[in-house]
Amino acid sequence: MSPQNEPLFDAVVRIDRLPAGGRSVDVELDAGQREQLAATLKLTSVEHFAAALTVVPLRGGLRARGKLDATIVQPSVVSFEPVTQVIEEEVDRVFLPAERGPTPTPGAEIFVDLEDDDFPDHIDGPEVDLSALLIETLALAIDPYPRLDGESIEDIGLGDQAGESGPFAALSKLKEP
User: Fold this and answer.
1) Is the predicted pLDDT of residue 124 greater than 70, yes or no?
2) What is the pTM for the complete model shown?
3) Where is the stretch described as Disordered (predicted)?
4) Domain coordinates of the chain in residue numbers?
């Protein structure tokens, strides 16, 4: 495995060694790991990152449930000042072995219910790396347009020009008598 493909932190669970009652997986990143995560997600910083999961065996795979707590800092989309966001996300994911049934013939229809809330992730092998799940959960919870309280585009003087220089400005001039 090349250094780029190595997980950022260790959260590997072996399905074949998982007790019937399950086990806890607790993750708390140190400063270096948080700095690496911030660079990966293109954030100013990750101030805190901790997760507490309970992993139980399920139909030859496993189910990971728990909570992710993180505090991140990223620049405001308006003023580029630092904006802090506290993230508290529930985690509930099922990992099942890939089905080894007959390979569908080319052109055959396959039904996949994307609306199913319990749509499992497929795994190949005896291990599941939960670090990717936790990073994905954090990435999906990040506010894509962070702003400080009370901040708006008008604060920097661009709000007045937006109506006059938009893509339809020339068309609106043609419409006027």
Assistant:
1) yes
2) 0.74
3) 158-177
4) 3-99+112-150
